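Checked the freezer inventory, then went back to the computational side. Two predictions to log before the end of the day. The first one is the construct we discussed on Monday; recording sequence and tokens without edits.
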Amino acid sequence: MKKIMILGASVLQLPAIEKAKAMGLEVIAVDMNPEAIGFNVPEVTREVISTIDTPAVLEAARKHRIDGIMTLASDMPIQTVAVVSKELGLVGVSEDTALKATNKAYMRDALKEANVPIPLYYRVQGIQAFKDAVDRIQSAGYKCIVKPADNSGSRGVDLLDDNVDLDRAYDYTRQYSRSGEVVVEEFMEGPEVSVETIAVNGVVHVIQITDKVTTGAPYFVEMGHSQPSQLDADTQTRIKQVAIAANKAIGIVNGPSHTEIKVTKDGPKIVELGARLGGDCITTHLVPLSTGVDMVKACIEIALGIEPKIIPKWNKGSAIRYINAPSGIVTAIRGVEEAKEVPGVNVITIVHGIGAHINDIKSSIDRAGFVISNGDSSLIALESAGKAIDLIKYIY
């Protein structure tokens, strides 16, 4: 029986753990949280280790004599995957690619060098360099958005308005940067999409383009996704070309990527990309519902050195909408059973339930729950999800 090590055992990685077990594989799950939900899957071997503790993960991988290693929807373990796969001669991204895929500053540099369309940007450390970068971008006629160089999930992202306190803005973003580096860049305006791809032996296969809804300024937390994209065919063609070029620029040869793109007045430009499957249930739920392609299975196969078959089976619609509940302490939630009866609704998940303190949405961890739906088109799927969301009421 082949052994696959999966970095992360939270709800994000649970679909990979369950899929690997269904494929008849021996699963070694790694997570620093001993209560992680993935550890509850029957016959899973537990390793209570931080997924970014590379030496400890490598030691465990050697101990178990694994045949493959992967993570599903998290950026943080990618560099660990790269080191372990290199040391054990397994399929995985290189350490150089892992760095470019997880550090926004290095990512921007690689994309710029390959002439992939990106926003005007500056890598900075220190308040004076930060202020100088903001001034240069504003002098060029753009609004500024700032991000920690090495975090994810919208943590530390901030759009600067005209009256912003720059010291406060720098301190807010800087606290989320592990390295201390901050990226200051042109704020791109236009529709935002993500592109779900799998590379096999250097050929990048575009599986789906996902339309996205965010909270907007200043934090831009993702609150909904739908497939397939409703953008026109020519724009989608250009989006695919940019996504493929970005994958090649950072060196993804075998494995997935989740590439976020803004369609600006100058054409599609890269927001960022990850050398992993898309989170927010995009690749675990939406892609199978809209295309019939099992991207999780394909990524497990790639990690084991097996060439996957990537053949879309249909063209339907799917959507996820997140619950934007007011802040406060939850005493009751009503309407969930009624919402489940809405035609097209597949999944309703309450993330922050009774007794939880819900915060205003500043990052993805603040979202109260979500609804997943499907239909003959993305519009129909979105309509179903919206009806279900409207029925769910939080009581405080």
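The second is the one RB wanted added to the comparison set:
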Amino acid sequence: AHLLLGRAYLNTNRTLPAVEQFKTALRLDPRIPLGHYHLGFAYESLGRNAEAIAEFRKELALHPNNPEVLYRLGHTLLDSGELSAAAAKLREAIRLDAGRPEAHYALGKALFLTGNTPGATQALRRAIELKPDDPNAHYQLARGLEKLGNKAEASKEFERFAELKKSQQQTGGM
């Protein structure tokens, strides 16, 4: 019940009460499925990345091979600047569920930031295959292509990015 109440609080942007409910649920049952995940997600939304990372790792210790938890951990590691660790977790998430465009996108960002531009462009191309209307993936791909010296293709991706952003703004998608 505490886990469900915490999720309800989180869904209504009442993050601090959600944290308390998740902590209570975990005190009552430290192995409750997704308990640490939800607490980690709440911490992440509060910008408390170190605590979020710790909770995601606890969840994986209890319930390994969950692509959503691996993705969230990778995403939070990326936001924390732990680029190599982020890339490793994102690759694991993709290995378990290759159809997650957000994991490919985050992997592309991590690889780009570590200087692996060819790997980044490959991951970003896959993200675009899975979610062609994501302007951010087109923008990041354009940056990678530009860095690789492929100016013509980079220009096309920058144009696609601008089209998608304009479309989102017109439809209220932003």
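For RB: The longest helix spans residues 151-171. The mean pLDDT is 95. Let me know if you want it refolded.
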